[in-house]
Amino acid sequence: MEVSVSTPKLVPFLFFTFLALKCFSNSGTRAQLIPQEEVKVLQAISDKVEKLNWKISQRSCSGDDGFMNRYIQPIRGNDIIRNVTCNCTFQSGTVCYVTNIDLARNYLSGSIPKSFSQLPLLVLTLIDNRLSGTIPAEIGNIARLESLNMQGTSMEGPIPPTIAQLKNLIQLRISDLSESGPPTTFPDLKELKNLRYLILRNCKITGQIPDYIGEMKNLYTLDLSFNKLTGSVPDTFQGLERLSFMNLASSHSASTNNPIWCLKKGLPCGGKPQYDSLFINCGGGRMEFEGNEYDEDPNPEGFSNFFSGDKWAYSSTGVYFDNDRADHIARNELSLNISGPEYYKTARLSPLSLKYYGLCLLKGSYKVKLHFAEIQYSNDQTFSGIGRRIFDVLIQDNLYLKDFNIMEEAGGAGKGITKVFDVDVNDSTVEIHLYWAGKGTTAVPNRGVYGPLISAITVTPNFRTSSKRPLTGANGIAAALGVLLVLILIVVLIVLRKKGFLGGKNSKDKELLNLKTGYFSLRQIKAATGNFDPANKIGEGGFGPVYKAFVLQEQGNLIELVDPTLSSSHSPIEAMRMLNLALLCTNSSPSLRPSMSSVVNMLEGKAPVQPPITQNKDTNGDAKFKAFETTSLDSQTLSSYSFSEERLERRVKSMDGPWIDSSTSLPSAKDYSSPSRLLKNSGPVTW
Fold first, then answer.
1. In whole angstroms, what is the distance from residue 14 CA to residue 16 CA?
2. Which CATH code of 3.90.1150.10, 1.10.760.10, 3.80.10.10, 2.40.40.10 fits the domain covering 36-247?
3. Each residue of 238-266: pLDDT tens digit?
C-alpha cells in the first residue's frame, strides 16, 4: 500500500511541533540555577548569622524549597522583614544571582560575614539587629552596591576606608556605633558623587566636616548628628540646592562664649538661678494635677525645631522616613481607654531626638519623674498592634533607660507609667534626652509615629528651699491667707512694741516681768520652768500647757495659799495635809493617784499623806507612760519630803502665834472654818 503525503501539509505540522517543544523547554524544563559558588556563600552567611536559618540550594531562587519564586515573602510578625530578591536574567535566563538582601528588625546576632563581599548585591539592609564586631573592610569589594543600611546595630567603629570604593552608592546609612569602639575620622567619601542620603549619626566621628560634602549635588538628606565634630560648616554647603534635610544636632562642640544662647553648651542661665521645680504637659494644654500647674506644650512643629521659655526649653530633630510632614504631637486616635491623669491623653514625639531642658534651677538634688503612655500603638489583633516603640532615655548625659518600650513596661496600650530618677543639678540646667537608636518599627501603623514619646515631666527638689513658686487652686488660696495672717501678726507685734509690751530693754517690760499672777511673778515662773522649757511640760490644759508642781514650790510655800483672814482659827497641819493631798489627787499619772478610801483616811489623819507604792514590771512599756511616771515620782518625792507634817511642825514652832503642837490630837472639824475657806480666792495657779 502506498501512502503519499503532501509536502505543503507536512511543513506546517513540523514547524508547530518545533515551536511547541521550544516553548516547553523554555518554560518548565529549563532550570534557573544559582551558581554553586554563590550557594556556598549564602549558606556560610546563614551559618554565621544566628537565627537566620537559611537552607540554600541552587534552586532557591526558582524552586519551592528556597526563596520561593525569586524572593522570600515579607514576614510581618512584629514587623520582621526578610526580603531576598533574585535576578535571573543572566546567561539567557539560566543563571540567578541574589541582588537584594533585606534583614531589617530580625534581632540577628553575631558579626557581619565577610562573605557578603562575594555577592553581586545592589541592596544590603541590616537595620535594627544585634550585630556586633566591626564593619568588615571587605564590604568595599561589593562594587555594584547602591544602598548600604546599618542603622541601630551597635557595631563597633571605625568606618572602614574601603567605603570609598563604593562609587555607585545612592544611600549610606550607618548609625549608633558602640561606645566601646574607638573614635574615627570622617571617612573619605569624595568619590561617592551619586549619594542622595548620607546618614552617619552617632558614629564617634571627630574632626571637621570635609568641604567635598558640599560638592555632592544630588544630596537630599544629610545627618551627622551626635558626633564630636569641630570647626564650622563648610561654605561649599551653599551649593547643595537639592538638600532638604540637614541635622548636625549635638555634633559640634559649642563654646560657652558663643553669642547665640541656644548654641551654648548646657543652655546656661542668663541670670541668677531661681527655680526649684518644673511641670510640663508634653504635647498638651495647661492643666492642674495634685495642686501643681503643668505648663502647656502645644507646638505641633518638631522638624529641627527649638523652643524656649523662662523656665524650660525643648529641641526636636529628625525627619520621619518618607513622611516629612508628620505631626509631632501624639493623640489618642485609637479610642483607647486611657487611665490616669489628663496628661496621658496627649504626648510629644520625635523621629530621632527630643530634648527637654529645665532652666535656671537652683543647685541641688532633684527628683525627675517622666510620665509615659502608649497612645499610638495598640495591643490588640489589629495592624496597629504590631508596632513596637523602642528608644533610650538619658538625663544629664547619663543613660537611665536602654531600649525602653512603653507598652511592655506599662502592661499594655493606654496605660500610664512613671519612671523616677534622682538627679544632681550643678550648672542650673537639667537636660532630659529621649533618643531613637534605630530600633523598633518605622512603618506601623504609618511612617509618622515611631521614635521617642513622652506625656509629661515633673521635676521637684529633694532639698528644702526658701524660694517661692506660684501656687494655684486651693493651695494658692491657702497661701494667700497665710501671707495675710503673717502681715496682720507683724502689724500687731509692731503696735505692741510701740506700746511697750515687747522688747527686753523697755521699762514696761521689767514691770511686766515683776507683775504677779496669783503669788508668783512672771519672772519667778520663767525661772522655775526654765523659760517654759518643754522638758518641764507635763500636759495640756484648757488655757495652755501645764508645767511641773515642784520647781515653783522651791520659791514659795503651799501654806501661803491659806487665806490670811483666817488667822489662827484653823489648823495649819490640817491645811497642809489637804493641800498635799490635793497635789496627789491631781497627779498626771492615774496609777499614782490615791483611792477614795485612802483620801478619806488621809483627811482624817488615820494615814500619812503619801502616794501609793507601784512597781513598774513592764520594762518595755510605752515611753510616754514612763515619762508621766517619772514626772509623778518627782512630785511624789517633793510632796513627801519638802512638805511633811514633821517639817511643818518645826516651822509652826518658829512662827509667832498660838500654833498647836503636833503631838496634840487633831481638833474636830467643827472647831474650824469650812475647808473651802482655807484656800485664797486668788485665781488660777500654775503648778
1. 6
2. 3.80.10.10
3. 999 999 888 887 776 544 555 678 778 88
